[in-house]
Amino acid sequence: MFDPSDAPLPFHLREAVPDDFVFAEALTRSNMNGYYERHHLVWRADLFYASWCESENFVLESDGEPIGVLRMTEEGDSLHIRDVQIAAGHRRQGAGTFLLRTCHRWARERGLQELQLRVFVDNPAARLYLRMGYRSAGPRLAQFGAIRHMTRRV
Question: Which residue among 35, 68, 76, 98 sits deepest, i.e. has the most Cβ atoms within 10 Å of its Cβ?
Answer without folding.
Answer: 68
